[in-house]
Amino acid sequence: MDELWFQIGITWPQVLGVVGATTVLYLVYAALLELWTQRLQSSTSTLSLALATVTGAVMARAMLGNSPTLLGGLVALLTLAALESGFGFLRTKGVAKRHRRRRPARVVVRQGRVLRAELRAAHIDEHDLDIRLRMAGVRSYAEVALVILESRGSLTVVRDGQTIDAELVEDVRGIAAVPEDIVLRRQS
After folding, report:
1. Is 113 helix (H, G, I), strand (E, B) or coil?
2. What residues does the YetF C-terminal domain cover (predicted)?
3. Strand 144-149 vs strand 155-159: parallel, antiparallel, or unpaired?
4. What gap in Å lies between CA 5 and CA 65, rounded to an integer?
5. CA distance linking residue 133 with residue 38, whole number of Å
6. Dihedral sign of CA atoms 105, 106, 111, 114 in order
7. Residue 95 above 90 pLDDT?
8. pTM for this entry
9. Which of 23, 141, 161, 172 shows the greatest Cβ crowding within 10 Å of its Cβ?
10. What are the CA-CA distances from residue 94 to residues 102, 138, 182 (Å)?
11. Count of CA atoms in the C-beta half-sphere (13 A) of 177
């Protein structure tokens, strides 16, 4: 019976160790994602996928300590669920609202011209942008009036001849330089 407990059990000091390691790694990973989200979400590179996979594997191993057990894994999962629920609650209450502003949505193409400085600031290369635009059905930069790189890494494409309501883009970096025939500003 002791041998079975050794394989699936965990002691109270080990519980504290798993909870502590899981909490620290969660916070570090959340900070890294805050910095890399636009890049990881918008990148089509296999290396980005491999980085995310390896990071998850390293974190999982580090959370469980020297000898991973079934109960240790459950403690880590419950800790992650509690942390995510707690931070999710704070996000919905607006406490974390200022942190979302760190990586603002930004204009990366305006009237068919790529804004390379904005791509560099988001750590995205033009090749990734080209791939994402093709995936969105864009065949030429000439048919694009506006492309916004969203804070989560997705693209919003406004085609030539289309407009977007100013209320939807008021917090987008670089939107003030977009002509009024693209951004519809309603008269009061």
Report:
1. strand
2. 106-170
3. antiparallel
4. 16
5. 15
6. negative
7. no
8. 0.64
9. 172
10. 15, 36, 31
11. 13
The phi, psi pair for 184, rounded to 5°, reads: -80, 110
Which SS3 state, helix, strand or coil, does residue 164 take?
Answer: strand
CA neighbor of 83 nearest in space, from 43, 45, 140, 26: 26
Of the CATH numbers 3.90.226.10, 3.30.460.10, 3.30.240.20, 3.40.50.1360, which one belongs to the domain with range 106-184? 3.30.240.20
How far does the chain reach from its first CA to its final CA, in angstroms? 77
Q: In angstroms, what CA-CA distances link 180 with 37, 81, 147, 150?
A: 30, 45, 15, 21
Q: Pick the closest to residue 102 from 49, 142, 152 (CA basis).
A: 152
Read off the tokens for 167. Answer: 């209320």
Q: Which two tokens stand for residue 34?
A: 């805050």
DSSP 8-state class, residue 148: E
Domain range annotation of the chain: 2-100, 106-184
| 129-161 confidence digits (pLDDT tens) | 999 999 999 999 999 999 999 988 899 999 999
